[in-house]
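Revision sheet: structure tokens.
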Amino acid sequence: MVVENENGVPSNFGVKITLKDPESFLLVKETLTRLGVASNKTQSLYQSCHILHKQGEYYICHFKEMFILDGKPSNISDEDYGRRNLITKLLCDWGLVFLSNPEIQDKMIPMSGLKIISHRDKENWQLIAKYTIGNKPFESGNR
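Predicted:
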């Protein structure tokens, strides 16, 4: 059974954040496209996290958490959670967001487990999102 908060978000889902200001949503969203797991052979970066806005609250979520929210199967691991926590901490360090839960610092992967593509270098990379916010959950009767 999934326990949800008053905004319909499962408990212990994502990392709740506060934006520096309302205009920073798009900056955070774009920055997240450049943080993830890389294949240097193909110059591809697989985006790890997304920003979710739900009823006035903001969360940084691993894409596998988004699958869970959509009712899809997910094999999210401790390493995935650690990468999400590291990304959230970096966003905080860069002054883009404020952390609502500073305890995530105890559960982060090392920096070596994350690739950061600079804004000026992003044209040299293929940025790939494995999840697109707004997709409807799969229902067996729909094709």
